[in-house]
């Protein structure tokens, strides 16, 4: 990164040093993003599995996801089935993380609230907008864990974590 701007030599030097430091920080953070995203995906999966089991036990009924229910009802086209599973594994995490941990979480932090408050504020609508009443507790836990991943691993870390969770779910469906 080089800035060609018409300011005194010392100013240009400062800008160049700043840009190099900023680039170095981004590269360093990207090393952490992969690990945090993978670990966050596993942590999210564990939290959801435990809370889904507790919910099923308390209500004495099976708790399944809407995606799994739709996948089970799909017949006929193998291509449509594979595309549907790919959408669950990659498409939904990308869109949901962009909306909840990107826009909502980012706006709350930008307005001066703590990242922890942003995590809860983004996690609640994440859970509710799935419109799966039996899965509100597991989805809220997922939203909280993904918010923590967002805080320490960035938006791409949260997207990766969400892809890990959904991909493992897709493997279970397939």
Taken in chain order, the helices and strands follow as HHHHH
Give the number of DSSP strands: 0
Quote the beta fraction: under 5%
Distance separating the two termini: 45 Å
As a percent range, the share of helical residues equals over 70%
Return Rg in Å.
20 Å
Major sheet attributes: none
How many helices? The count is: 5
Q: How would the global form be characterised?
A: globular
| Class of secondary structure makeup | mainly alpha
Low-confidence stretches: 11-25
Task: Please state the average pLDDT score.
Answer: 84
What does this structure look like?
30% of the residues are buried. By secondary structure, this protein is mainly α. It has helices at 9-59, 66-73, 78-110, 115-128, 136-173. The chain is globular, with a radius of gyration of 20 Å. α1 (9-59) crosses α5, α3 (78-110) packs antiparallel against α4 and α4 (115-128) crosses α5. The protein is built from five helices and no strands. Residues 11-25 have low confidence and may be disordered.
